[in-house]
Specification:
Distance between the termini: 78 Å
Oligomer: single chain
CATH architecture of the largest domain: 4-Layer Sandwich
Strand content: 15-25%
Length: about 600
C-alpha cells in the first residue's frame, strides 16, 4: 500500500451515475453503492453530479413543496451513511428561496453548502425560472488540501467562481455538472476545462452526469486536468463509472511559486465583484494514510458517428426503461430509417424486447417486404406482417361519396400512413408496447411526415438525426458489427414513402445531400435565406426548404419527444410560434 506521508496528495473519486428525476430511493442506492466502493479504495473526497439527489432537470417538480422536502430528507440519509468519507453532491437547498446547490459532507455530517452562481437560461435550460443565484465563493480544507466546488455553468465563465476560489487558496476545484450531450460538445468541454486549470494554476475535476432524461442525454465523459491543463483522468462515455485518481497537490503549490500572479493581492474592485469568500477547515488529514493500490483503467473514447450512435442507444434505453416499458414496437417499411431505429432498439433493449411490424399496401414494392424479413432475421427480432389493403379499400369505399368528383392526391397517401399508425397504436394498447417512430430530422424539418400516421408513437428515436447522418450511422453500425447487420440493399435503395406508384422522396424534396446543409444553416444556425444562398447553394432549393420548414411548425409541436444529438434540436432548443406571419424566405416583403 502506498503511504500518504510523502508530499501532499488527495485521493479523489468522481461517481458518474445515472440518476432518475424524482426517484429519491433509487438515486440514493446508487449514491450509497458508489460511496461504499470509494471508501474501500481509500478515497478522501468523493463527488457526485449536479442535483444527483433528485435527478436533473426536475423542471416544475421544483414548485412542489413535497418534492423539495423529500430531496432534503434524502440528503440527510446520504450524509448519515457517509462516515469515513468527505462528499460533494448536488441537491436543492431551501432557505428563503430554493437554490441549485452542492452539499459538502464530512464523516456523516453536513459541513458546508455552495449555491450555484450562474444559472443558465438558454437552449434547454430554464434555471432562472426556478432558482435564486448564489453569491458566496467558499473554499474548504479537506484532508489537508484546500478544495472548492462549483456547479456546471459556473465553470464556463472565464473569470467566474473558480477564479475567485483559486485566488482564495483552492488547489483542487471540483465542478459537479449535468451537461447535456450534443455531438462535438465533449471536445469543446475538455478544451475549456484544460484552459481553466492552466489559467488558475489548479487541478480541475469535472464530474458530469450520465444517462437519458426525456429528450436529453448526458454523456458522462468526466475529466480531471492538472494545473498545467493536462488531462490526467477520464470517465467513460455514456456509461456509469467511478473514476478514482491520486492528485499531486504539492505540484500546484510549486507551480504557483513560479507564477507571479499569485504573489500579488487582488484589486479591491475584483474582490467586491466576486462577493464573499471564506475558508472552512473540515479536516487537516485524510482518514487513512495507507491507501490500497488502484486498479488500472482503460477508457474507450468514441468519435463521430459512433459517438452519436451510443447517445441514441442510451437515450432510447433510459426513456423506455425509466418510463416503465419493457418492449417496443416499430413499423418496418424496408427503408433505412426504420432499419436504423430497429437496430438502435436492439442494442438498447435486447432482441427479445423489440417487435417489428410490416404493413404492406398495394404500393409496396416486392423488395420492401423481403428486405424487412432479411433485416429482422439479421437482428433476431420478431416480425409481424399485417397487410393494410383491406382497410385502405374500406376507407376509399367509405369516402367515395364525399370525395366524388375529386382526383386522388396526398389525402389518399396520408390515409395509408394513418392506417399504419392506428394499427401500431392498437398493438401498443393491447400489449403495452411502446411505439418508436422512425421519422428523421430532415423529414420533421420539412413536414414530410403525416400527423397521426408515421408521427404516431411514444418516442422518436432519430427525430434529431438528418437523413444524411442516418446513412452514416447505418454504415457505422455495420462496421462495428463486421457484417451487414443492416442489409446493404436497404442502405443503397432510393428513399421512398411508397404511398403511390413509383414514388420517390426526391419527387417532393430536394436530394438530401443538398437539403440537409440548408436545414443545418436555417434551423440550427438561424442563417437567413440570403446568407444561405451566398454560401453557394441553389436559390430555389434554399427558398423551397425555408418555406417547408416555416410551414411545418404545427406538425413538430405535436411530435413525440426524441433524443437530442445536435446543438439545436426541435422542441425546447427552438421555440417558434405556430401562428406566425414572419417567414424566412420572404422577410424582405413584410412591409
Amino acid at each position: 500500500m502506498p503511504s500518504w506521508v510523502d508530499g501532499r496528495r488527495l485521493r479523489l473519486g468522481m461517481a458518474q451515475i445515472n440518476t432518475t428525476v424524482g426517484d429519491f430511493a433509487g438515486n440514493r442506492r446508487k449514491i450509497l453503492k458508489a460511496s461504499d466502493e470509494a471508501r474501500s479504495l481509500g478515497v478522501d473526497l468523493l463527488t457526485f453530479p449536479e442535483l444527483a439527489i433528485c435527478g436533473y432537470p426536475p423542471e416544475d417538480l421544483l414548485f412542489k413543496p413535497q418534492f423539495i422536502t423529500e430531496n432534503l430528507r434524502s440528503l440527510e440519509k446520504v450524509a448519515e451513511a457517509s462516515k469515513g468519507l468527505s462528499i460533494m453532491i448536488g441537491f436543492v437547498d431551501a432557505r428563503e428561496d430554493i437554490y441549485n446547490a452542492a452539499a459538502v459532507i464530512h464523516d456523516g455530517k453536513l459541513a458546508g453548502v455552495y449555491h450555484k452562481i450562474f444559472l443558465p437560461n438558454y437552449g434547454v435550460f430554464d434555471e432562472n425560472r426556478y432558482f435564486r443565484a448564489g453569491s458566496e465563493y467558499p473554499v474548504y480544507v479537506i484532508a489537508g488540501v484546500t478544495v472548492s466546488v462549483t456547479i456546471c455553468e459556473d465553470i464556463w465563465y472565464e473569470s467566474g467562481p473558480a477564479t475567485a476560489q483559486a485566488y482564495s487558496g483552492a488547489e483542487v476545484i471540483v465542478n459537479i455538472s449535468a451537461s447535456p450531450y450534443h455531438f462535438g460538445k465533449g471536445s469543446s468541454r475538455e478544451r475549456m476545462i484544460a484552459t481553466r486549470a492552466a489559467d488558475n494554476v489548479a487541478i480541475f475535476a469535472y464530474n458530469n452526469l450520465v444517462g437519458g432524461q426525456d429528450e436529453l442525454v448526458f454523456d458522462g465523459n468526466s475529466v480531471i486536468a492538472n494545473e498545467k491543463g493536462q488531462l490526467i483522468a477520464r470517465g467513460k462515455q455514456f456509461e456509469e463509472d467511478l473514476i478514482v485518481t491520486d492528485l499531486d497537490v504539492e505540484s500546484v503549490f510549486r507551480a504557483r511559486l513560479h507564477d507571479p500572479r499569485w504573489r500579488k493581492r487582488l484589486p479591491r474592485s475584483r474582490e467586491q465583484e466576486w462577493g464573499q469568500t471564506r475558508k472552512t477547515i473540515i479536516s487537516e488529514a485524510p482518514f487513512t494514510t495507507e491507501k490500497p493500490l488502484l486498479p488500472d483503467r482503460q477508457v474507450e473514447s468514441y468519435s463521430l458517428p459512433a459517438e452519436v450512435y451510443k447517445a441514441l442507444v442510451l437515450g432510447t434505453h433510459d426513456y423506455v426503461r425509466k418510463n416503465g416499458f419493457q418492449k417496443v414496437l416499430i413499423g418496418l417499411s424496408g427503408g433505412v430509417d426504420s432499419a436504423l431505429v430497429a437496430t438502435i432498439a436492439l442494442d438498447a433493449l435486447g432482441k427479445s424486447n423489440v417487435i417489428g411490424v410490416a404493413m404492406p399496401s398495394r404500393y409496396s414494392s416486392k423488395g420492401s417486404l423481403s428486405d424487412t424479413e432479411l433485416l429482422t432475421a439479421n437482428l433476431g427480432i420478431k416480425l409481424m406482417t399485417i397487410p393494410i389493403e383491406k382497410v385502405f379499400q374500406a376507407y376509399l369505399d367509405t369516402l367515395a361519396e364525399p370525395f366524388k368528383g375529386t382526383q386522388p392526391n396526398v389525402t389518399e397517401e396520408n390515409i395509408q400512413a394513418r392506417i399504419r399508425g392506428n394499427l401500431l397504436m392498437a398493438l401498443s394498447n393491447k400489449f403495452g408496447w411502446l411505439v418508436l417512430t422512425t421519422g428523421n430530422k430532415s423529414e420533421m424539418a420539412t413536414g414530410y411526415t403525416t400527423l397521426y400516421g408515421d408521427m404516431a408513437g411514444g418516442f422518436a428515436v432519430i427525430k434529431d438525426v438528418t437523413k444524411t447522418m442516418v446513412y452514416q450511422l447505418a454504415r457505422c453500425r455495420n462496421s462495428l458489427a463486421g457484417s451487414e447487420l443492416i442489409p446493404a440493399v436497404i442502405i443503397d435503395k432510393p428513399p421512398s414513402a411508397e404511398l403511390k406508384p413509383e414514388q420517390k422522396d426526391i419527387d417532393t424534396l430536394p436530394p438530401y445531400e443538398l437539403l440537409d446543409p440548408v436545414l443545418t444553416a436555417y434551423v440550427e444556425e438561424d442563417k437567413s435565406v440570403e446568407q444561405i444562398i451566398a454560401m453557394g447553394i441553389d436559390e430555389q432549393v434554399v427558398k423551397r426548404a425555408a418555406r417547408l420548414v416555416d410551414g411545418s411548425e404545427y406538425k413538430r409541436r405535436q411530435a413525440p419527444p426524441g433524443v437530442k444529438i445536435t446543438p439545436r434540436a426541435f422542441g425546447r432548443d427552438r421555440r417558434l410560434p405556430i401562428t406566425n406571419r414572419f417567414k424566412g424566405d420572404n422577410a424582405k416583403n413584410q412591409e
